[in-house]
UniProtKB/TrEMBL annotation:
This is Organelle transcript processing 82. Gene3D superfamilies: Tetratricopeptide repeat domain. It comes from Aethionema cordifolium. Signal peptide: none annotated. PPR repeats lie at residues 42-76, 143-173, 174-208, 275-309, 378-412. Keywords: Repeat. The gene is otp82.
Length: 679
């Protein structure tokens, strides 16, 4: 402006070009204001602005600008249309794309190579591959770009046979065409073909680019091919891509999903600049291998460093909160979503994750409140709510929701019925369970899967209906798995059915020889019958096979920090205070006349020693810590990885009455709500 160049079309067109194409500048609004100041914009300026709109978050606005240009009596040229077709492809505006197609016929530009190729690409990306092929067939000049556009179109529809045919016809293949084929195979789960094609590409001396490596690394991740992933890692380092953030993020994802978290974390720490994808990948990696506490720690570090999480971050961290029972952090995330991700709260996956988190953290009321705020309820959100009601023993609420689903026209699926049958199992509703199991097939034409049979057999077993459970197993169209036999073995323990328990345990040991659970359950059954020699025999067998019993672990969240305890744990910083509180608890329990149930202690020892062993169960340590760490009257929420034993269950009922506390405990399969001496 100072030297008067603002009146020259050449200088202004260059300024528009800079505003629109400079990365991270986001200069379209400024470009619009500059464009409006031009008295008579030339064709280059119009094309630049159409390009800017096509590249924006509102690509359809490029068409509006084109219509305005035509209304002024100006004619487009061959450079105008590729941007318009790109806009139609991004916006999935097939009808508008056809109208623009008519425009190139009108202006006689069909012979232009760039226009022709962008037209094919527009039809292909809109899924109208037949029309794309018609345009392709009319061209006498078919180059690698037009072939690649066709390949991308067929690949997007999963038709890799036709894509492969087109690929084989290309005289000279470039890296983009190879990428289109590799990506196409990868996206439909044909990872073997994708990696074979990559190896062929390397043999043909076609140099891969960033896009190739990102796709191949993703393919290695999904197929679990960490060995090839390591080779790709070496190639990346040797060819100067070691600082490429996109590729390093892909490597972090590969190593974390393949169980090499130390290497993944090392790559993450080595990054000079970490974007939100880097953080999400590491958090997601820990969550994927069930290292939920580590995922939570990385998330907290992310916040501490001022990084801004997005909806993907929340979808990774909410399940971690759910698993750990970290409701304080879960609540913070909910508030953050409401304040910072307002446009995304309509995301069904986020809403469903919030429902799941609150339900698994023991606050079924909060889960229901989230559910009620959803205007257009989806099947997944309804299923999450049904599962929440089921694990809290609220079978009535689960079936009420089923009725509401029918009124709203939401058709239940096989997952819905797993939740409903689970609700029947937790509530001991065998008649209703039978009815819903039959209705699933007769009324909804849903064939039972292993999960449905598992719920029914668990329900029948818990009700002591062993004969009916065995008849149902014999009627199954598929082989029963370890979960089904395991649920029946647990029922044998509940009802002290030693004879059947021995038979089922033998089956389980054959199906899952490396699962210590069947050995532990059988030894439990022997212990309840005081058959100590058999207990010792099974435990020796367990040790001889190198199997270890999963240790009981309980956690409690205090001031947004999750504290974990193992049986007899003495490593907590407040160890002395915790054990002092345990002594107080045991003393007050004794005053009420409470007598420890020692039938589940798997050792032949003096009763007094057995009682001592029960006092140090992980859930009692967590409760003791909760009592010394919170104000009187505060609700305690405990999460345990195994089933709560009968003794701790009875003791916790009394603890809730003595200390006037509501205690919500989640074990491996259900919730226990302790209040005023009741559960």
């Amino acid at each position: 402006i100072k030297i008067g160049l603002h009146n020259t079309n050449y200088a202004l067109s260059k300024l528009l070009d800079f505003c629109i194409l400079t990365p991270y500048f986001h200069g379209l609004p400024y470009a619009i204001s500059v464009f409006k100041s031009i008295q008579e914009p030339n064709q280059l300026s119009w094309n630049t602005m159409i390009r800017g709109h096509a590249l924006s978050s509102d690509p359809i606005s490029a068409l509006n600008l084109y219509v305005y240009m035509i209304s002024l009596g100006l004619s487009p040229n061959s450079y105008t249309f590729p941007f318009l077709f790109k806009s139609c492809a991004k916006s999935k505006a097939a009808q508008e794309g056809k109208q623009i197609h008519a425009q190139i016929l009108k202006y006689g530009l069909t012979v232009d190579l760039h226009v022709h190729t962008s037209l094919i690409s527009m039809y292909a990306q809109n899924g109208i591959v037949e029309d794309a092929h018609k345009v392709f067939d009319t061209s006498s000049h078919r180059d690698v770009v037009s072939y690649t556009a066709m390949i991308t179109g067929y690949a997007s529809r999963g038709n890799m046979d036709k894509a492969q045919k087109m690929f084989d016809e290309i005289p000279i293949k470039d890296v983009v065409s190879w990428n289109a084929m590799i990506s196409g195979y990868a996206e439909i789960g044909r990872y073997k073909e994708a990696l074979e094609l990559f190896n062929e590409m390397m043999k043909m001396d076609v140099k891969p680019d960033e896009s190739t490596m990102a796709t191949v690394l993703s393919t290695c991740t999904h197929s679990g091919n960490v060995e090839l992933g390591r080779q790709i890692h070496s190639w990346i380092d040797n060819h100067g891509f070691g600082s490429n953030l996109k590729l390093v993020n892909a490597l972090i994802d590969l190593y974390s999903k393949c169980g090499e978290m130390e290497r993944a974390h090392g790559l993450f720490e080595g990054l000079q600049y970490k974007d939100v994808i880097s953080w999400n990948t590491l958090i997601g990696g820990y969550a994927y291998i069930n290292h939920h506490k580590e995922a939570l720690l990385v998330f907290q570090e992310m916040l501490k460093l001022g990084e801004t999480p997005n909806d993907v971050t929340m979808l990774s961290i909410l399940p971690a909160c759910a698993h750990l029972g970290a409701i304080d952090i879960g609540r913070w995330i909910h508030v953050y979503i409401d304040k910072k991700l307002k446009g995304i709260i309509t995301n069904t996956s986020l809403q469903t994750s919030l429902i799941d988190m609150y339900a698994k953290c023991g606050n079924i009321e909060a889960a229901n409140q989230v559910f009620d705020t959803i205007l257009n309820k989806s099947l997944s959100s309804c299923n999450a709510m049904i599962f929440g009601f089921a694990m809290h023993g609220r079978a009535d609420a689960a079936f009420d929701l089923l009725s509401r689903m029918k009124k709203d026209g939401i058709e239940p699926d096989d997952i819905t019925f797993v939740g409903l049958l689970s609700a029947c199992s937790h509530a001991g509703l065998s008649d209703l369970g039978r009815k819903i199991f039959k209705s699933m097939t007769l009324d909804y034409r849903i064939e039972p899967k292993l999960e449905h049979y598992g719920c029914m057999i668990d329900l029948l077993g818990r009700s002591g209906l062993f004969k009916e459970a065995e008849e149902l197993i014999n009627s199954m169209t598929m082989e029963p798995d370890g979960v089904i036999w395991g649920s029946l073995l647990k029922a044998c323990k509940i009802h002290k059915n030693l004879e059947l328990g021995e038979l089922i345990a033998q089956k389980l040991m054959k199906i899952e020889p490396k699962n210590p659970g069947s050995y532990v359950l059988l030894s439990n059954i022997y212990a309840t019958s005081a058959r100590w020699d058999d207990v010792a025999r099974v435990r020796t067998l367990l040790n001889d096979k190198g199997l270890k019993k999963v240790p009981g672990c309980s956690s409690i969240e205090i001031d947004s920090m999750v504290h974990e305890f193992l049986i007899g744990d003495k490593f907590h910083p407040q160890n002395k205070e915790i054990y002092k509180m345990l002594e107080e608890i045991d003393s007050l329990l004794a005053e009420t006349g409470f007598v420890s149930d020692t039938s589940e202690v798997l050792q032949e020892m003096e009763e007094e020693l057995k009682e001592g062993a029960l006092s140090y169960h992980s859930e009692k340590l967590a409760i003791a810590f909760g009592l010394i760490s919170t104000k009187p009257g505060t609700k305690l929420r405990i999460v345990k990885n195994l089933r709560v034993c009968r003794n701790c269950h009875e003791a916790t009922k009394l603890i809730s009455k003595i200390y006037k506390r509501e205690i919500i405990a989640r074990d491996r399969s259900r919730f226990h709500h302790f209040k005023d001496g009741m559960c």
